[in-house]
Amino acid sequence: MPVVRRAALAACLFVSLPLAAQTTGVTSGQRAPRLVIRGATMVDGNGTPARGPVDIVIENGVIADVVTLDPVALRRGDSRRPAGDMQIDATGRFVLPGLINAHTHMQSNRSGQSMGGFEYYMLLQLANGITTVREVGAESDTGSIRLRERQAKGELAGPRILVYPNFAAGRKIRTGADARARVRELKAIGADGIKITGLDRDIMAAMQDEAKKVGLPIAHHVGVEETNVWDDIAMGTRSIEHWYGIPDAAIPDGRQHFPSDYNYLDETDRFRWAGRLWREADPARLDSVLAAMVRANVAWVPTLDIYEASRDLQRAQTQPWFQDYLHPSLANYFKPDASNHGSYFIGWSSTDEVYWKENYRIWMAALRDFERKGGLIGCGDDAGFIYQLYGYGLIREMELHAEAGFHPLKVIQHCTGNNAKILGMDEEIGRIRAGWAADLIVVDGNPLEDLKTLYPTHQTQLRDGKEVRAGLEWTIAAGVPYHVPTLTARIRQIVDSANGR
């Protein structure tokens, strides 16, 4: 939904305010005609350094103005400041664009057990500062679109939703004509794009050609299949999801060296040998692949977080937020079980973890090289699988981008401005700029120093020799402020009720 731009300064009213402005008039979940976030240090989503203090003026869901304040005038108490119906005191705090989750699955049940509808999923996204999600492979095509419509109308608290249905989705697509018909069907029901997995090359070519004609971008989860990233480069895929297909395209003889008893449909086999894939890629060939992706404008959403259990299973199983926020239906799904996708840790060994640690080192180096060449890297968490909790997985993804060697400013850009480009919405979201959607987060702490301050479960830090709590305080989605501790209290209620506590 396009954002309506406004003449920023024409609507701004200014008053003289004392230095210490208090948070006033704010009700979690309620939009005010005019909200002002005061005295913030701002990190934009374009990779530039922090600046402040600024006052950010929001009107009817849109950023109306960003006012740079004069620190000297503030100290004298004679600064003229914009007025608002609500105000959030962000003095000493950081404000970032709302995070964008470019690879998520909206789920209302796991392991055949209900999670009580979509409230649990939606609240976890908001509590982790996520204001836009790209749903890639819904429980049902039209179900996600109905949720998108309800959210857009304000009937459902949650992030903005873009729906990329799964192309195959249980259908028998045997010919190019079948593929084209499916694309037109998805366009007709209002899909924002298409997610594809394993397709034969002729089917993929017909699908991609028809998708271009109707204006639907493609997100490709490449598997061990006939196609790889060279096909995405040739056909115009918008984004590669995860990483399969990239090292495959750089293996000299074109196929990973699997053992003779390998079975792709056995997930323990599949993920065990996926952990040995990057080591088989030829560095010179890989360089050519990455350069070609950049030339073809194929973006990369790596979802580093979702495979982390493969390199450190114990860490994945004992994440601190599980105790209070992990729904029992999801906990049951995570347990090793061959019938659940991604629950493959049957006979998982320290040898497997060693290979996966090496896999990550090479993968992360490829990501750095891709961005150095001019490639576009995005952020998504793929949570609901493999011990990753919705929303929390995206913050962990950001930490892993930092581990890969990216500066925190670039990490934030990956999850805001870059993701907006991948979604084709970079003139609407992903920035703190007049005329853009009022999607913001207010953080008590410095995320450039410690990305853990973005978690909703607050961290203890030392400041001036004193222990203080730091963490995400407010998520503002389309101008609606949500108090993060209020959101997490409701999530705990849902989990406690499901656990019979």
Topology of helices and strands:
Blueprint: E1 14-16, E2 34-42, E3 51-59, E4 62-68, H1 71-76, E5 80-82, E6 86-89, E7 94-97, E8 99-104, E9 109-110, E10 113-114, H2 119-127, E11 130-136, H3 141-152, E12 160-164, H4 176-189, E13 194-196, H5 201-214, E14 218-221, H6 229-235, E15 239-241, H7 267-274, H8 283-295, E16 299-301, H9 313-317, H10 322-325, H11 328-334, H12 350-372, H13 392-403, H14 408-422, E17 440-444, E18 459-463, E19 466-477, E20 480-483, H15 484-498
In brief:
The chain is an alpha/beta fold. It has a domain at 9-97 and 430-498: Urease, subunit C, domain 1, CATH 2.30.40.
Walk me through what this model shows.
Residues 1-12 and 14-20 have low confidence and may be disordered. Strand 13, helix 5 and strand 14 (218-221) form a beta-alpha-beta unit. The protein has a domain at 9-97 and 430-498: Roll (Urease, subunit C, domain 1). The protein is globular and about 75 Å long. It is of the alpha/beta class and 501 residues long. Strands 2, 3, 4, 6, 7, 17, 18, 19 and 20 form a nine-stranded mixed beta sheet that branches. A four-stranded parallel beta sheet has the order 13-14-15-16, with no helix packed on it. A three-stranded parallel beta sheet has the order 8-11-12. It has helices at residues 71-76, 119-127, 141-152, 176-189, 201-214, 229-235, 267-274, 283-295, 313-317, 322-325, 328-334, 350-372, 392-403, 408-422, 484-498; strands spanning 14-16, 34-42, 51-59, 62-68, 80-82, 86-89, 94-97, 99-104, 109-110, 113-114, 130-136, 160-164, 194-196, 218-221, 239-241, 299-301, 440-444, 459-463, 466-477, 480-483. The longest helix has 23 residues, at 350-372. It is 33% helix and 20% strand.
